[in-house]
Design brief:
Layout: H1 2-10, H2 23-49, H3 56-77, E1 78-79, E2 82-83, H4 88-116
Antiparallel strand pairs: 1-2
Length: 117
Amino acid sequence: MGGLVGARFMGDGCQSGNPKACLGEAFPGFVWGVGIGTTLGAPLGAHLGNGRRGDLPRAVLVSSAFLAGEVVALRTFIEGDQIRPGRRRAVQAIVILTPIAQIVAAALVERQSAARR
């Protein structure tokens, strides 16, 4: 859902009559939307799944730290719109593993903070 919202937001200014021509403009918004959606959705899902007993703001903060780390790492490996030579697998690993880490971290924060209450 976040990806679609981001794509709509970034691709909104596309004036071409050809929808495929607007894909290039919308794609960065899609990527940012997915990142932000996962960053907020993982902690919220863990919080609701835990019966609202944990510390939602703390879980969002931890998830946001993972997104920030992902952005910093990807900026290191990507220059302009090109992946630096020999860094494709690293970029793929970061893009795949960061959302998984966000989900696991959100669940762990929720579990730990609920046990303290």
